[in-house]
Amino acid sequence: AAKSEPARVADGLEQNRPLTWTYTPGSVNKIVTFAGAIERGIINSDSVIDGITSSVTDSGFTITDDHVMPAAMSATEILARSSNVGTTKVAAMLGKQGLSHFLSAFGYGVTTSIDFPAQSPGILAASKDWRSIDMLTKPIGYGLAATPMQVLDAYMTIANGGKIVHPRLVSARIDSQGVRHPNVSSPGGRVVSKATASAVTEMLTHVVAPSPATGGTAAVPGYTVAGKTGTARQKTGSGADSFALAKLEATFVGFAPAENPRFAVIVVLDGQAGNVGFYGGSESGPLFSQVMAQTLRLNGVAPTRDPQGLSQAVTGPLVSGLAAAPTGPVIGAPSAPVKAPIKAHAGASDSKQAKSKAAKGKHRRVSTGRASRSHGASSTQSKPLQ
């Protein structure tokens, strides 16, 4: 309340921000591009994408990476390093109709099934209204808007083996006699195959690894975490300098244990204009780690690996930076898709992990959800578990 008006409450304090607030999600949206390309048989996690340049331009709009990337990387390494340019090359192979289909299938542009009024559907234009630049921006989480719950829902779909999880705010009601009546979710439809979901999950475990991967700070000792960093500029005005002056939003979203997912968590931190080193990995990752660790412990989830050390051990293709050359099939152009079997940001990118302290005045939005392979039930909370 303001000092001069003690009875007045500032606008927005009672909003359920995970459900009503929309933002540009940034790189956390990249899983839609990769899941779609894998589902269509265009790539697999080991496929090597070459010809990755320092930037790509369309209609006067340039997409870059924060630092120099290898000219050829596996799909897993592109996701782990969060390469914007590499992701746009995968999106080009998936095509406009394919990308639009999977964005809609993962729940963008519509409200979630959660039992809460006034939630926002976000913003996703119909593919017929896309411009050529949208094939550079939407794959990396620009050119659309989503609520934190929608982003979390997409990751719960992957955690649930490719089937939609219908989240709920109320898990059960208790009548006057003390009898508990569960609020059972209806079965969700399938978005991608179980094999695709497994492949994407494995790729996401490589994100939560030491540099050059971007999400090492989100590791939880004793558990394998699958997740993704995201950093995006929130454009609030117009003009040539609107992105340069925009504030940053830092996101980390993921689930654990990766081998048998039980919980999914999203952390979104609201930065300020001019924040230096404000990234999803450096800012939201550590908070994700704390929330997930406490959630798993309080719910009695047994560790799935040796808890020694903070960096999780991952299997499969090694994300090794410039030292090791990729070994998978090389994809040189959108016209040459690979049909190999599956084994298992504009202006701001989260690929650089800066050691910076959190900016003053940032706001936290944290949601947790229960992911269940057996019945698809989900419960959400809009604050960290205590």
Task: Summarize the structure in words.
The chain is α+β, with helices and mostly antiparallel strands and 386 residues long. It has a single domain (17-321, 346-381), classed as 3-Layer(aba) Sandwich (Beta-lactamase). Helices cover 23% and strands 17% of the residues. It has nine helices and 13 strands. The chain has helices spanning 17-20, 30-39, 75-81, 84-94, 96-105, 134-137, 148-159, 194-205, 280-298, and strands at 48-49, 55-58, 61-64, 73-74, 166-168, 172-174, 180-182, 226-234, 247-256, 263-273, 330-331, 363-370, 377-381. The strands form four sheets. A six-stranded mixed β-sheet has the order 5-13-12-10-9-8, with helices on both faces. Strands 4-1-11 form a three-stranded mixed β-sheet. Strands 2-3 form a two-stranded antiparallel ribbon. Strand 12 (363-370) and strand 13 form a beta hairpin. Helix 2 runs parallel beside helix 4, helix 2 crosses helix 5 (96-105) and helix 2 (30-39) crosses helix 8 (194-205). The longest helix has 19 residues, at 280-298. The protein is globular. The model is unreliable at 313-348, 352-363 and 372-386 (pLDDT under 50).
